TrEMBL record:
Protein name: LysR family transcriptional regulator
PANTHER family with a match to the protein in the record: HTH-TYPE TRANSCRIPTIONAL REGULATOR YBHD (PTHR30419), NITROGEN ASSIMILATION TRANSCRIPTIONAL ACTIVATOR-RELATED (PTHR30419:SF8)
Family under the similarity heading: Belongs to the LysR transcriptional regulatory family.
GO annotations of cellular component type: cytosol
Residues annotated as domain HTH lysR-type: 10-58
Length: 302
């Protein structure tokens, strides 16, 4: 069996405190505290930051907890298989989305998935490409959704194409760039950009834009993986943002923002679902792949 300290660590992560985790497990707080301290000492790094209000996972701790949760679920699944016929969909489905601002793409496919298989338990995590790809490699998520170009750089993955996400540049109403008769690369490079991620396909395009005009791109790019924050930043400044064609057509968009005329940079970004080649594809993952391929072309149609 797995180390019981794994269960203790997951309980603390869920509860946010040693005291609450101890109550849930049925141990004393001192026992849980010692268990986690011993585990951290053996690992060589801290899983949690201790604060007056409880605990917060460290970056390494978050990755560790994700892997441990997968291991614990896999062990439970092995025992369930030995107990006789079971519902093959009655298990967690962990989905990573990168960048997190694309989580809205999952609304329709996940609603359809749960309607068809209500026993599936969803666990959806959004984050940077670096974090989600690491979780995928470590087994912290079963499937990752993102730009195919970004995942193409990682070995050991199978990529399932799902749809092409069309993106445009946008600015606030009254932005100086909207007064230009013709917008060139030099004009774009005069403004800062805000991106959801500095991975492909964004990185290559934006980096090339600034380097072509002799500018250090690092000094001109904000990376914010929350679209609600991106909208606030764009509305309050001359920063240029990136959004989807679909959102640019909405009434909510047109009241505050305008699309930058022309199509100098962006790009139709093919999306994919990435899974590990060496892991068996579970029934929930297989059904999710079917649902997202079925739903997204309609979602992204012009």
């Amino acid at each position: 069996m797995l180390d019981p300290r794994f269960n203790h660590a997951v309980a603390v992560a869920h509860a946010g405190s040693f005291t609450e985790a101890a109550n849930q497990i049925g141990l004393t707080q001192s026992a849980i505290t010692k268990s986690i301290a011993d585990l951290e000492r053996e690992l060589g790094y801290s899983i949690f930051h201790r604060t007056a209000r409880g605990v917060v996972m460290t970056e390494q701790g978050a990755e560790f907890i994700e892997r441990v949760k997968r291991l614990l679920d896999d062990v439970r699944e092995l025992f369930d298989r030995g107990a006789g016929p079971k519902d093959p969909f009655a298990k967690p489905l962990r989905i990573g989305v990168c960048p997190a601002s694309l989580e809205w793409l999952l609304a329709a496919p996940l609603a359809a998935l749960l309607a068809r298989h209500p026993s599936i338990k969803l666990d959806v995590a959004g984050g940077s490409f670096e974090r989600i790809s690491q979780l995928l490699r470590n087994g912290g998520v079963d499937v990752a959704v993102g730009f195919e170009e970004a995942f193409s750089e990682i070995g050991g993955l199978k990529r399932e194409p799902i749809a092409a996400l069309r993106t445009v540049l946008f600015v606030r109403k009254g932005h100086p760039i909207l007064c230009r008769k013709k917008i060139t690369g030099a004009i774009l490079a005069a403004y800062d950009f805000v991106l959801p991620s500095f991975s492909r396909p964004f990185a290559v395009v934006i980096q090339a834009l600034f380097e072509e005009h002799g500018l250090p791109w690092q000094q001109h790019v904000h990376t914010i993986d929350s679209f609600s924050i991106v909208k606030r930043v764009v509305a309050a400044s001359d920063v240029i943002g990136v959004t989807t064609v679909e959102y640019a057509k909405s009434k909510a968009f047109s009241t505050i923002y305008e699309q930058v005329p022309g199509n100098l940079l962006f790009i139709q970004g093919p999306m994919c679902c990435a899974i590990r080649t060496r892991w068996e594809v579970s029934p929930p993952v297989r059904e999710f792949l079917y649902m997202i391929k079925k739903a997204l072309p309609a979602e992204l149609a012009s």
